[in-house]
Amino acid sequence: MLRDISHVLISEERIRKRVHAIGAQIAADFADSLDDDSPLVLMPVMTGALVFSADLIRHLPFKLKLELVAISSYPGKSMASKGVKMASELPKDLEGKHVLIVDDILDSGHTIAVLKSLIEEQSPASIKVCVMLEKQRNDGPPIVKADYIGFSIPDEFVVGYGLDYDGYYRNHPEIVTLREDAL
Ligand code: 5GP
Ligand code: MG
What we know:
Layout: E1 5-10, H1 12-30, E2 40-46, H2 50-57, E3 64-66, E4 69-72, E5 85-86, E6 98-106, H3 110-120, E7 126-136, E8 148-154, E9 158-159, E10 175-178
Parallel strand pairs: 2-3, 2-4, 2-6, 6-7, 7-8
Antiparallel strand pairs: 1-10, 4-5, 9-10
Helix pairs in contact: 1-2
The structure holds guanosine-5'-monophosphate and magnesium ion.
Guanosine-5'-monophosphate (5GP) is lined by residues 45, 48, 73-74, 81, 103-111, 142, 157-159, 163-165.
């Protein structure tokens, strides 16, 4: 696996510090709006957000519920979005709840836009978006904004820290690009 890596964009140490800082910021922002009647619903977008959300939730010191949603836009070996597909059902009890969507990377924004509009149909109290990465796209900005962003990266295909290529490399602890001959 290691020999497939071209270069390291973000080290483990930088990720660890940044996740801690985002957690602190979210904790401060939500401190006043959450109570037992309106707890936080944290919604990781599977599978890419698995690693990030596992680290992030341990910095959030209040009652929250995890509701996983599965969405796929890069099936198999694709390196460009093939259209957004919901692969699981949304929970049906989001009315009046504060929802925090957590994803690995914001690229075109279509994934988050679709998810947000589906959640909005249920009249939640609020919807916020937290992503580990945002791509500086050559095609212009994403169609939705994230409220919390870990790092901005150049318009390159990256893997590691939850992000995959053909299902692999999610377990790599850094965010990296792959060598041409690994693709
Ligand atoms: P969007 O809908 O914003 O264009 O795409 C977001 C989704 O595409 C992300 O949740 C992620 O699954 C996938 N994606 C976008 N860029 C990359 C990338 O550089 N590497 C990997 N592995 N997945 C990406
Ligand atoms: Mg994804």
